[in-house]
Amino acid sequence: MSTALEEPPAATTPPAERLRRFAAAMRLSFTWFGVRKTLTPQQKEQAAESFGAEGNFLSAGKKLIDTKHPAFKAVTSVRNRIVSYWRGVSLPFPEPGIRLIRQDDVAVVDQRLGEMKSELIDAVIELDRELADLKLAARQQLGQLYNEADYPGSLHGLFDVVWDFPSIEPPAYLQQLSPALYEQECQRMSARFNEAVQLAEQAFTEELAKLVSHLSERLTGAGAEDGKPKIFRDTAITNLTEFFERFRHLNIRSNEQLDQLVNQAQGIVRGVQPQALREREGLRQRVSKQLAGVQSALDGLLVDRPRRRIIRGGGNEGGS
Q: 23, 102 in Cβ contact below 8 A?
């Protein structure tokens, strides 16, 4: 993994333009069988009677299958890992369902998602084998609310993930048809990338603040009744290390203060082993004190955020 986008110095090219040159838009979406269904008007009336309520003032639904079943949890686990991976290799973009990845990452990301799609298909096959038992359990749990028509004959194809690389640049033909409209679209897209830069800064700042705060709490024992340092997992350190790698891979050097805080935090925990923090009080105190300075500066960045906050569009789980 390279350390940063290979672009001209920040002084010569605006961050938004650097991002625009080296990023590719990517869209991720899921097909997902709905496991909940709204009750029919008649069923709502029946349910309302037991409470002495009016059916049209009642909102009610039923769960078609047990979402805690291991086979179903395996399917949702793959989905969660797909979303987590995609978000980890990309930057937010202010259009629903779209994020930005490095152009030189396209092949790697496409291959990895293909592998995870295969895992999803395998998990759905296992879930489909349990469908008869899941329906039997639902029949027993739902009673008169059970309806065989709510269930498909097979779950194949009802859980899926797809991705594509949509163009977010104004179409070239528009320049010939309407130069004025083409220029308008160019300006709109330029504004979009300026927003994307701010969204990236915001996301990195919030994530680093959360990770630093979490580690600080584990070191100082904040919230512990006995005042002793909390026992923390290795992930309190490894999650920070992974963040540093991802930041350098995706960072477009748009915020010098944020860059400095990332470098400072990395320097504080560089070479520090979780077990050493558990065993050495002096090391805990030193790291905690140094992190407090980083956390204070990050809090300042977060306080300033509303003045340049970007309003994000909606979207599915794969959205920005």
A: yes
